[in-house]
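WARN no homologs supplied; continuing
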Amino acid sequence: MKIDHEYLRGLLTAFEDAEEPYTDIKKLKAAGFDYQTDKFVFHMRLLDDQCLIARCDGESGFRLYGGISGYSWAVMQLRLTSSGHDFISALRDKDVWNVVTDRFKDEGISVLVDVVKELAKGFAINKVKSLTGIG
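OK structure emitted
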């Protein structure tokens, strides 16, 4: 399965838009992300692999049980990590988003995370230079 950048960005945004400092799969489903789909499982695992989301109880991973009848999740509190907040913040920048979707659409999640960080840093440095004349 390929990474769906729009879906990934939307899922991270749903974490960030939670009214509390955490969310769970039921709240994510209400936000339009059905936890019983392969697409959801795939993208959640990617976010977990990159430590962009975490369980609120400090344990690693999330509880997902696969079976013939589909997925069964344990409803637990999940949060966006500081790296996750940085990542979604960078993805919201239209210049970063355009570069990612135009030039890095076929890259894996590790490369995507690294590229987004570097792009955000580069755009921020250029902005500081233009605002201050320093650099």
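The first strand starts at residue 53 and ends at 55.
OK
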